[in-house]
Amino acid sequence: MAQYIDCYFLIDGRNSDLVKIFLKKYLPVNKESAEDYPIPLFSDHPVKIFDSVNDLLMYLENNKDCKYSIYWHTDKKKSDIEHVMVFYTDDGKMIFGTSISGNNPMEINNLKIFRDIRSFLNSEIGCMTVEEPPPFNSSEFVEFAKNRYSPD
Predict the structure, then answer these.
(1) What is the pLDDT of residues 82-121, one digit of tens each?
(2) Of 43, 50, 87, 117, which residue is least crowded by CB atoms under 10 Å?
(3) Cis amide bond preceding 46, omega within 30
């Protein structure tokens, strides 16, 4: 089974247009990993269920304390980036993530992807892990990132 290197980047604020631009740039041929989106996340008794990821993005942009994760995967046979994720923190921010096949964050191509995304997002806080999800709070993510690999 393939192993993934996850790259994460903290972004101030919530902007649904940035999510769409990011997807178009880094995973243009993609498929949503979920069929619907319950609010709250993982609830057995959701108060709301979205069928459209675009509607969900708008909801999350306007509900700053709602924590959520959204996943997309590539719909191509060969792609440097296999998954894109967006984690909405409980304090009004977003953590963008990508998964790259492999197990060595220090490979040249992995470093290139990390640095390119960090520059594109203008993110000051980022890190690389091996199949480890980030926390849903920006302060906790800052600590999380300090204890993970970050090529600088």
Answers:
(1) 999 999 999 999 999 999 988 888 889 999 999 999 999 9
(2) 43
(3) no
List, in sequence order, every residue forming a beta bridge with 38; answer none if it has no partner: 49
Single-letter amino acid, residue 89? T
SS3 for 139? helix
Structural Rg of the chain based on CA atoms: 15
Question: What does the alpha-carbon distance between residue 121 and residue 130 come to, in Å, rounded to a whole number?
Answer: 21
State how far Cα 150 lies from the chain centre: 16
Give residue 121's region: left, alpha or beta (phi > 0; psi -120 to 50): alpha
Calpha distance 61→149 (Å, rounded) = 29
Question: pLDDT at residue 59 above 60?
Answer: yes
Using CA atoms of 28, 48, 11, 134 in order, give the dihedral in degrees to the nearest 10.
Answer: -90
Indicate the pTM of the whole model: 0.95
Question: Which domains, and CATH codes, for the chain?
Answer: 4-34+65-146 (3.30.310)
Q: What angle do CA 35, 41, 44 make, to 5 degrees?
A: 85
